[in-house]
Amino acid sequence: xxxxxxxxxxxxxxxxxxxxxxxxxxxxxxxxxxxxxxxxxxxxxxxxxxxxxxxxxxxxxxxxxxxxxxxxxxxxxxxxxxxxxxxxxxxxxxxxxxxxxxxxxxxxxxxxxxxxxxxxxxxxxxxxxxxxxxxxxxxxxxxxxxxxxxxxxxxxxxxxxxxxxxxxxxxxxxxxxxxxxxxxxxxxxxxxxxxxxxxxxxxxxxxxxxxxxxxxxxxxxxxxxxxxxxxxxxxxxxxxxxxxxxxxxxxxxxxxxxxxxxxxxxxxxxxxxxxxxxxxxxxxxxxxxxxxxxxxxxxxxxxxxxxxxxxxxxxxxxxxxxxxxxxxxxxxxxxxxxxxxxxxxxxxxxxxxxxxxxxxxxxxxxxxxxxxxxxxxxxxxxxxxxxxxxxxxxxxxxxxxxxxxxxxxxxxxxxxxxxxxxxxxxxxxxxxxxxxxxxxxxxxxxxxxxxxxxxxxxxxxxxxxxxxxxxxxxxxxxxxxxxxxxxxxxxxxxxxxxxxxxxxxxxxxxxxxxxxxxxxxxxxxxxxxxxxxxxxxxxxxxxxx
Amino acid sequence: xxxxxxxxxxxxxxxxxxxxxxxxxxxxxxxxxxxxxxxxxxxxxxxxxxxxxxxxxxxxxxxxxxxxxxxxxxxxxxxxxxxxxxxxxxxxxxxxxxxxxxxxxxxxxxxxx
Lengths: 545, 113
Description:
The complex is a heterodimer of chains A (about 550) and B (about 110). Chain A has a single domain, classed as Sodium/glucose cotransporter (Up-down Bundle), CATH 1.20.1730.10. Chain A has 20 helices and no strands. Chain A has helices at about 1-5, 15-35, 40-45, 55-65, 70-80, 85-110, 115-120, 125-160, 165-215, 220-230, 250-265, 270, 280-310, 315-320, 330-375, 385-410, 415-440, 445-465, 500-515, 525-535. Chain A is globular and about 65 Å long. Chain B contains 4 helices and 2 strands; from the N terminus they run αααββα. In chain B, a hairpin with a 2-residue loop joins β1 and β2.
């Protein structure tokens, strides 16, 4: 391949990458500044005045959801493992049907700002709200850590920043810009950042997809053929099993992952919070329809990008690059369009991280200020202005924690943090959401057992899984776990993903807690919740300016 | 498993609406659509997942050029997701929204049938 011959040691021009990224930051900061004029009240700060329409919110949801793990991680997984990498795309997309059919509209109609609003609607407020806030903060924190660690890991390749100090500075800069977005622009500013990022991401991925396919005369089979020809494993990359088909344990692990992916999305607090930014459940429905189309089309692009990177860059060179698997998409951009396209894709990758961390930060800060501080600590005796002030302070604290955590975790395996976030969301959040929306009898003990049981079992099983200790690369003898010292091995749980145990367990505990509790469900509150959830009566309206 | 609460004579607006025939019909119509549809797409998704894990040879069968059964199944997951999305959106606009809106207006006007 002529492309490979022209390759030199350094990829791209860091100055170009940084310049394009700086343009993005300046433009988004200006937009955030404009949005700041209307982010004073709680409804404006947390929910952008509920004034976005379904199309805008759908695109923003895509921007919130398509994280660096989606863009760089999936393209890389397909470029290395072929078919098995594609399954992530499918799980992440099909999951949206759970949100569309069972959660989005009902949640929009019954809640105000947070997931805990819905879960505590007809149950005992203080304990359930506390539990929901803890699991919201846990999921957001793991997800945030993964994004920040990803940002640190990418700098080597994308911005030419070498060494630990450079990475730390980059993580700090990402954290600082994100804090400014959230602090100044609130949910409205964050939403616009996510919309712009989603459009850039789709445009960038779409351009590369057409470029790759164009070289093959728009023949997918020809692309697959050329990709397999350039892979050491040959045709096996077109078949299932390269990553997960080794033995029975890895197959069950794959099913466990598939379960967590499909049930995790509708339990992700930063995704759920976006439904409050539209004026009605009808617009929430339109949001999900838009999100499914945008996300689905993007994941179709990743299939071509992954096999394109396999063909034009090759799995061996990708694994030898500084960002390893994550560098597949940037390296492909460089092969296709040289320095300029690499600069654009690098900037898009950073914009992706920024938009996602901003969404996570506002969600976590809202949960702390609205649920923990205002409702649990101050028992609801607090005015909305003070609550927003607390939320802003919390956002700064969370930003600082994320920067420190990101610096600490920058050498860690980020896939495990994302898997953890999805497993916890699917175990701790989704069962309680579904029970409280659809099961009349459900009560406080059921909710607490399900949330805490799901949260604790998911984290506990991950701690004793091969993701944390004892996973060794059979070829090199190097550790593939979070703990790099191969002499430390305390894993006994064979699966890397706990979903297949922790999700059914959380559903079971929700049922068991409910039927063993003598607490009768409150018929009046249940009537209100059920009628509101289906009719939208009494739902929060948009703020008019 | 459910305990049917006796309808309180002086119950709230919400309880009156909840026990109205029109609301019961709305709820039943909603559940009759979303529960089977959820079961369907989950079954279809896990069929794909299980076949990928345990029926490697079948999934690796080539159909057209280098495109095999597994890839076609994967792409059909996209198709089914898009189709279910549009089916639900159109169905909900037509079958749910008018009734929901009527009930909402009754509740917010404070007059319940």
